[in-house]
Amino acid sequence: MSLFTVPIPSCGAHPGGSITVTEPQPRVYLLTFVSPPDNRITTVFCRALMQALDILEFGDFPPGVVITTSGTPKFYSNGLDLEHAINTDGFWQLFYDLYPMPTVALLNGHTFAGGLMLAQAHDYRLAPDPKGFLCLNEVLFGAPLRPPMAAIFRHRLTPQAYRTVALEGRRVTGQQAVEYGLADATAASVDDALAFVSERQLTEKAKPGVYGVIKAELHKDLLRELRKDGVDAEDARFDEDRRRDAERKEFGKVWFEQWSKENKSKL
After folding, report:
1. Span 126-167, pLDDT tens digits
2. Quick one: how far is CA 148 from the chain centroid?
3. What is the model's pTM?
4. How far apart are alpha carbons 93 and 108 in whole angstroms?
5. Are the C-beta atoms of 138 and 113 separated by less than 8 Å?
6. Tell me: the pLDDT tens digits for 156-190?
7. Listed GO molecular functions (predicted)?
8. Which residues contact 174 (CB under 8 A, 6 or more apart)?
9. How far is CA 12 from CA 6, 40, 78, in A?
């Protein structure tokens, strides 16, 4: 039985959809999003997700656990609308925020690029099993990881795992995702996610009222970087790094032309 539904409005080429919230067990809230064709993450998607979370927090619902998943079997999410994200002021503040209950991402299909970033914003990740891949594939189609995008993975992963995921763009299976630290376990169904919640007694963790406070302290460095001042400062640093690299390349071309002339004359 549905507790409530939040609409996802259309956004550019994306037709919109909805987030349906159910309670498969007491104090376990399942948020199922459907935004055809592949759950692209846009401002309106993020706002709808945050609205659903706010209803659970401030409405007449006892604190418990939030599980997000997709109603589209093939995809949890196929990523950001990157141009939209980069050109939307305040987007990253929508993308990652603290929540005073445990959050679990049940990745029931392919989870690529920005979809994987959304998964990393949860406290726990359950990778798809037996089908479905996880991938940070920006390196394969020439999209740089902007500072807020990189920050989430740098915060979550070991340097070795981050190198493999970011610089190789490797598609990993659910079990490999667990090995790399991208996920905490694999799951084939909502029942598996409920078993994970029960095993860790997660429904009890938000009741004393300090879960969000402890989470904020645990992730304070990431939060500082993703707040507006942090994003602005890191974007300025990123752009300056790109300017210096362009200058280096231009100098390198001039140097090589001169080197070629000098060495050709000696032959």
Report:
1. 999 999 999 999 999 888 898 988 999 999 999 999 999 999
2. 10
3. 0.93
4. 26
5. yes
6. 999 999 999 999 999 999 999 999 999 999 999 99
7. delta(3)-delta(2)-enoyl-CoA isomerase activity
8. 107, 127, 128, 129, 130, 132, 134, 183, 186
9. 19, 11, 17
How many residues in total does the chain contain? 267
Q: Please check whether residue 77 is in contact with residue 115, taking contact to mean a CB–CB distance below 8 angstroms.
A: yes
Q: Are 167 and 158 in contact (CB under 8 A)?
A: no
> What are the CB-based long-range contacts (under 8 Å, 24+) for 253-261?
none
- pLDDT tens track for 44-75: 999 999 999 999 999 999 999 999 999 998 99
Would you tell me the crossing angle of helices 147-156 and 159-168 to the nearest 10 degrees? 140
> Could you tell me if 33 and 18 are in contact, meaning their C-beta atoms sit under 8 angstroms apart?
yes
Task: Say which residue the tokens 């790399």 belong to.
Answer: 180
* Pairwise CA distance, residues 166 & 177, whole Å: 13
Question: How does DSSP assign the chain, residue by residue?
Answer: -EEEEEEE--BTTB--EEEEEEEEETTEEEEEEE-TTTT-B-HHHHHHHHHHHHHHHHSS----EEEEEESSTTEEE--B-HHHHHTSTTHHHHH----SS-EEEE--SEEETHHHHHHHTSSEEEEESSS--EE--HHHHT----HHHHHHHHHHS-HHHHHHHHHH---B-HHHHHHHTS-SEEESSHHHHHHHHHHTTGGGTTTTS-HHHHHHHHTHHHHHHHSHHHHHHHHHHHHHHHHHHHHHHHHHHHHHHHHHHHHHHH-
Which pairing describes strands 134-135 and 75-77: parallel, antiparallel, or unpaired?
unpaired
Check: CB of residue 29 under 8 Å from CB of residue 23. yes
Q: Residue 37, preceding bond cis, omega within 30 degrees?
A: yes
User: CB 255: neighbour CB atoms within 10 A?
Assistant: 10
